Amino acid sequence: MVISNLEGEIASKEGERKRKRKGEVRPSQSKWRLDSEQKTYSSKLLEALRCVRAGAPAEPSRTRAVREAANRALAMAARGQTRWSRAILSSRTLKLTAAKRRRAAASRLKRSGGASQEKKRPPAIQRKARVLGKLVPGCRQLSFPKLLEETSDYIAALEMQVRAMSALSEILSSIGSGSGAPPPA
Amino acid sequence: MSSRRSRSRQSSSSRITEEQINDLVSKLQTILPEARIRSNDRVSAAKVLQETCNYIKSLHREADDLSERLSELLATTDMSSSQAAIIRSLLMQ
Q1: Cα–Cα distance between B47 and A123 in angstroms, integer?
Q2: Which A residues, 11 through 70, put their C-beta within 8 Å of a C-beta on chain B?
Q3: How far apart are CA B79 and CA B75, in angstroms?
Q4: Chain B contacts of A39, Cβ < 8 Å?
Q5: CA B65 from centre of chain
Q6: Global pTM exceeds 0.90
Q7: Alpha carbons A166 and A175: distance in angstroms, whole number
Q8: Do the Cβ atoms of A172 and B66 come closer than 8 Å?
Q9: Would you put residue A178 in left (φ > 0), alpha (ψ -120 to 50) or beta?
Q10: Residue of A126, A171, A174, A177 to mutate for B, most B C-beta atoms under 10 A
Q11: Which of A31, A38, A111, A163 sits at a 20 to 30 Å CA gap from A169?
């Protein structure tokens, strides 16, 4: 796999950085690729999904509850070391949906009026960086270097989340089809 | 007022040199799946940032689809009786 070659490069660069900055703990992005990490996450996710199921919500909110459970479990796996994970854990559902509505309204207004003036002043990179800051939770006001750092970790974590959720749905669907072994007595 | 604010944002970001930006962006490029970046040298920083945004959005969409699938499976799978089997399968992967 290509990613495994780059892992060493990233890890060594992280080692350099750690020596330069004394008290600062940099999040290690390569942990998201560890098998053990994914297995731990999958177990936690399964527990959380059981709670969702017990709550017996109706369809549209159940999918959202699953997504939120997956995100919360992912954020907890980060162990408080990244801004995006802390932002996920400290936000509540109601705040999220209200904030989304406000953001959607604000972006609609921006696009309709005064958009031509806005585009000329900030260069393309700053514009894209702002968009990126909106995509990564809790990273709107971050400096450029910090934003990219959070982004790298967030992407690695999301990739693990997708892998874990795929694996879990494969298992659940194979069990559901009746081919699962009966539990030991 | 808003012009002062945006100018101060620009002056704080100009303390970061363009070289630093390109350096950081090229590191980010290594995270992105190779299929999205055609040639490794001639990709501009803006393009890498754009690709990053697109990649995150596609990961979000994948997670949403998987959430929907898991939600359906949750409703139909009898998890209480197959608990051990699920965990065993997870750990054996």
Answers
A1: 13
A2: 13, 29, 35, 39, 42-43, 46, 49-50, 52-53, 59, 62-67, 70
A3: 9
A4: 90-91, 93
A5: 16
A6: no
A7: 14
A8: no
A9: left
A10: A171
A11: A31
Q: Where are the alpha helices (DSSP H) in chain B?
A: 2-14, 18-31, 45-76, 83-92
Type of residue at B70: L
Query: A46, B86: Cβ pair inside 8 Å?
Result: yes
Are A158 and B55 within 8 A, CB to CB? Answer: no
The answer to whether B30 contacts A135, with C-beta atoms less than 8 Å apart, is no
Sign of the alpha-carbon torsion through A159, A160, A165, A171: positive
Task: State the amino acid at position A117 in one-letter form.
Answer: Q
**Nearest-by-Cβ selection for A145 from B16, B30, B60:** B16
Q: What is the pLDDT of residues A78-111, one digit of tens each?
A: 999 999 999 999 985 545 555 566 667 776 776 6
ipTM of the complex: 0.78
DSSP for residue A58: -
Residue type, A128: K
